[in-house]
Amino acid sequence: MAEQQAIPTNIHPSRFIQNPLQRLLVATELDTRLLGMIGALAIIWVGFNIFSGGLFLTPRNLWNLSVQTASVAVMVTGMVLVIVTRNIDLSVGSILGLVGMVMGVMQTDILPNQLGLGLGHPLIWALSLAAGLIVGVGIGGLQGTIIAYLRVPAFIVTLGGYLVWRGAAWWVTMGRTVAPMDPTFQLMGGGPSGSVGAFWSWVVALVACAAILVGLYWGRRQRRRFSFPLRPLWAEATLGAIGCALTIGAVLVANAYPWPRRIAENYAAANNLTVPETGLFISHGIAIPVLIALGVGVVMTFIATRTRFGRYVFAMGGNPEAAELAGINTRWVTVKIFMLMGALCAIAAAISTARLNAATNALGTLDELYVIAAAVIGGTSLAGGVGSIAGALLGALVMQSLQSGMVLMGMDSPLQSIVVGAVLVFAVWLDTLYRRNKN
């Protein structure tokens, strides 16, 4: 009897699918939940553009939207790891407020006056940022230690932190607003000076497109090395084309937003430039806070998917008891997660403080709501074990788009809170349905 021919294990399952749309999804291995969020975001953008009279989908509003999303986007990358391990952090907004106040006081009082560096010293912004990072990591380490070693539920610890750190922020300056920030520090907040301009935006686009293509090539090489199913070449080309097209489109929008006329004229006068009759067009380009948020997203994605620490985090979220029996020091991992969350709050505080050019007691108010909502909308399951950084970043953009659109439409603040709360409940309900159907 003739032996049956073995079927190669590296044949991609998309070859056996006849439906074109289903074959495209399987071949490209795109997450359907991520595609659903992209579709929802498109509907939100088009809807708000119609109801706002065409004001939403303009370079100016989209550029401002990206800057406004940056601080929440930075924090949500850490919140994903917190929720994946079946914890929660309700104190992120208060930590942001406290760290922002500390950095403000460092720049306006402690460093220039008490330590004698003088206003405008080139080290002021760096030392202030370092102080903020130390405070943020310290607060996260303290909360993580209480959660991990004293076995106090994260909900209670961070709820207490929500109150304690907000009060501490007020206590630092007795309620005063601290301003202005160091000129170099202000660059992290965006604005005409806090953007990289048209030329460097295209450089960033080229680097990003090259990284996408190299990533696809490296991934295919690794799949071949370990005899995993290879995506069809047309699917790889489609992914590369989509990634590069989105990158180039984002840069085109950023470069289409010019400096305000008065600022451009002052710049021309200071540099002996002739201003044309039609006005001087100087592109903002990509804002520095957006680059910071994207950089944090890339680093956090690498940590979550390519490091031992990231594997431990998802193992703990999937089954904490099994992870501990497997030899993972779950307590120390929990402490590190909250320390990382504190560091990300410090980075977000720098962005928010620099954007306002002031440290206020209202800084970070309700940010914990937006961060948690963005993580859940982005596909992070409150049951633990499931979550992605890319989805969370997209969730942050969805949340900020809702807020920006409602402001453009003139909706009252209480109604905005109602909408955000309803969206959060709806997202958790969808997650519950998804897990129920999957099981």
List the main descriptive attributes of the protein structure presented here:
439 residues; mainly alpha; ABC transporter involved in vitamin B12 uptake, BtuC; 17 helices; 71% helix; globular; disordered N terminus
List the topology elements:
Layout: H1 20-28, H2 32-51, H3 59-84, H4 92-114, H5 124-149, H6 154-173, H7 183-186, H8 197-225, H9 233-255, H10 261-270, H11 288-306, H12 308-318, H13 320-325, H14 330-356, H15 367-377, H16 389-408, H17 413-438
Helix pairs in contact: 2-16, 3-11, 3-14, 3-15, 3-16, 4-5, 4-6, 4-14, 5-6, 5-14, 8-9, 11-12, 12-14, 15-16, 15-17, 16-17
In summary, what is this structure?
Helix content is 71%, strand content 0%. With 439 residues, it is mainly α.
Question: Would you mind describing this structure in some detail?
Answer:
This protein has about 450 residues and is mostly helical. It has a domain at about 50-195 and about 285-439: ABC transporter involved in vitamin B12 uptake, BtuC. Helix content is about 70%, strand content about 0%. It has 17 helices and no strands. The chain has helices at about 20-30, 30-50, 60-85, 90-115, 125-150, 155-175, 185, 195-225, 235-255, 260-270, 290-305, 310-320, 320-325, 330-355, 365-375, 390-410, 415-439. Helix 3 (about 60-85) packs parallel to helix 11 (about 290-305). The radius of gyration is 24 Å and the shape is globular.
As residue ranges, the low-confidence spans are 1-7
Strand content: under 5%
State the secondary-structure class. Answer: mainly alpha
Count of helical stretches: 17
What radius of gyration results from the CA coordinates? Answer: 24 Å
Instruction: Measure the end-to-end span.
Output: 42 Å
What CATH calls the topology of one domain is ABC transporter involved in vitamin B12 uptake, BtuC
Second CATH tier, the architecture of one domain? Orthogonal Bundle
Q: Please state the overall shape, judged from the principal axes of the Cα atoms.
A: globular
The number of distinct β-strands equals: 0
Residues in helix, %: over 70%
Overall pLDDT level:
90
SSE succession: HHHHHHHHHHHHHHHHH
